[in-house]
Specification:
The protein is of the alpha/beta class. It has three helices and 43 strands. The longest helix has 62 residues. Keywords: Membrane, Transmembrane, Transmembrane helix.
């Protein structure tokens, strides 16, 4: 009995076993909790890595899309980076690369072919698709590629071909408070310089585009262009505008491959895109867009010379105008009739039939008053005169449209043209090219054919032709304005000089039978980009 009692575990031993079991159970629970925590950390770390990778990929792809937008402002890229390859969007361990493709569509929604940066047809829409990829093996549970797509509307930045407000066949000088604006809202008043240099200085405003097709562009002394500037030769801007005004309101394009000069502090409202480099000082020019230098020719619009349109004395072009009979005799009789109506002295050149009426003066010793134009559209020929001159207060009052052909034309001494009936009328002052044979389509200066020789047009000392009268002036030689002149219309000349408080408002008129369409760029000049949408899509 005693032996059996001794073999039974006592109470302390039984409690020690229970404690061991409880300790093992706690350890197992702790291990389970630790496993849960470790698993949660692993999952969170994996998710964080995936989020970091996704964020990097999305941001890189968006950066590629935005880079294409910038390229579209200069041209028509077919892919990006141009020429192949990929953009590196981050460094290790999240190194990401991206590339983009561009699809173009016309107004009907049909796809257009793009090759080597050139699009066949006129694109109005583009779809940019950029895919970014993180380097290394695929991440567990997630893709390593993300794609961003954007659709944009394209509006050409190029100046479209239209008759210029002022066309200079050889050279132009604008100086001393010359202002060119447009009489039509939204229509730019463009200056086209087909050949030769531009010297723009001393308070000049060009409210439109300045295109220098084969020459340099020199800006000084508050010369401003509110639209685009395009120059094949060197661009020189010697100083900033006062009052924080822009020297060029929109985009500046330069084809010169050498050193251009852009003054420190000079403001440019848009992009400055140059084939060459820039010399500047101080903090450099102030840009509303980006400065790009060393560009390829294909990245900049490339205009070509069109030549000064040739205008001849061809009466058949003037349908609806009185052109029959001797048009010089008709002109002389018109002057004499007006002088008689004004009670001019019988001995005055304007009234005397024995005189040639080549010089008409408005003073008492001349026509003694204004000349009132014919009541129907009329063509006059003053080419038998070496020079047709209106001076000394000469005033022309139009009742209908009028054309004056001359070998040389000079108006001075407060010459004015007004409307006799208050209605709009048009006036053409034309020094024609006397050679009717083809000459490559260009007006020729100084050529003599059949006793007629093309000469100059000059206005000064208060000449005024303004609304509701519009005027078209043409000469293949020199067209010059001086000293407080004002015009509504268009000026076309070989060499053009506009100075000393001259003002002009652009009103397109043209000449019957003559094509005044200017050239458009032979290479794309880029587009304004308006975003329709930008979103992430499933990677193709």
């Amino acid at each position: 009995m005693l032996k059996v009692a001794r073999s039974w575990p006592d109470r302390d031993e039984r409690e020690r076993g229970s404690a061991l079991i409880a300790a093992l159970a706690v350890a197992l629970i702790g291990m389970a909790l630790a496993s849960v925590v470790v698993s949660s950390v692993i999952v969170a770390s994996r998710d964080s890595g995936k989020d970091r990778g996704r964020t990097t990929q999305v941001h890189t792809a968006e950066g590629a899309v935005d880079a294409v937008f910038a390229e579209l402002e200069l041209g028509t890229p077919c892919e990006w980076p141009v020429g192949g390859g990929s953009m590196i969007g981050n460094t290790s361990p999240s190194a990401t690369t991206a590339r983009a493709t561009v699809e173009y569509f016309n107004a009907a929604g049909a796809p257009l072919t793009c090759a080597s940066g050139s699009v066949t047809g006129g694109p109005v829409l583009a779809v940019v698709t950029a895919t970014a990829q993180t380097a290394g093996p695929a991440q567990p549970g997630g893709a390593t590629k993300r794609t961003i797509q954007a659709k944009v509307v394209l509006t050409p930045l190029a100046v479209t071909g239209q008759g210029a407000a002022i066309f200079a066949g050889n050279a132009i000088m604008t100086t001393n408070n010359f202002n060119l604006t447009s009489a039509t809202l939204g229509t730019p008043a463009d200056i086209w310089v087909d050949s030769g240099n531009v010297n723009c200085n001393s308070g000049v405003l060009i409210d439109g585009n300045l295109i220098v097709v084969n020459g340099t562009a020199d800006f000084s002394g508050a010369c401003r262009v509110t639209g685009d500037l395009w120059s094949k030769g060197k661009i020189s801007v010697t100083g900033p505008q006062s009052g924080g005004l822009t020297t060029v309101g929109l985009n500046t394009y330069g084809m010169f491959t050498g050193l251009n000069m852009l003054a420190g502090g000079a403001k440019f409202g848009g992009n400055v895109s140059l084939r060459g480099t820039v010399d500047t000082w101080g903090s450099g020019p102030i840009l509303g867009g980006s400065l790009r230098t060393g560009l390829a020719a294909s990245q900049i619009p490339s205009y070509v010379q069109v030549g000064l349109p040739e205008i001849n004395y061809v009466l058949s072009d003037w349908a609806g105008f009185v052109t029959s009979g001797n048009r010089n005799a008709a002109y002389k009789q018109w002057v004499i009739d007006n002088a008689v109506a004004n009670n001019a002295p019988t001995w005055s050149d304007s009234r005397n039939p024995a005189m040639d009426q080549c010089t008409v003066q408005g003073a008492s010793y001349g026509a003694n008053g204004p000349l009132v134009g014919p009541s129907v559209p009329t063509v006059f020929d003053t080419r038998p005169c070496a020079q047709t001159k209106f001076s000394n207060g000469f005033s022309l009052k139009l009742r209908s449209d009028l054309v004056i052909f001359a070998n040389d034309f000079y108006a001075t001494g407060n010459f004015s043209v007004t409307s006799a009936d208050g209605l709009p009328h048009q006036l053409w002052i034309i020094v024609p090219d006397p050679d009717l044979s083809p000459s490559g389509g260009d007006g020729e200066c100084g050529k003599t054919v059949g006793g007629n020789k093309s000469g100059n047009i000059k206005y000064d000392s208060g000449s005024n032709i303004t609304a509701p009268i519009t005027v078209f002036m043409y000469t293949p030689c020199k067209l010059e304005t001086n000293n407080s002149t004002a015009f509504y219309g268009q000026l076309y000349g070989g060499n053009v000089t506009l100075r000393n408080d001259a003002g002009m408002r652009y009103v397109p008129i043209g000449v019957p039978g003559v094509d005044f369409t200017l050239g458009t760029p032979v290479a794309s000049s880029g587009y304004r980009v308006d975003i329709v949408y930008k979103r992430e899509i499933k990677t193709p």
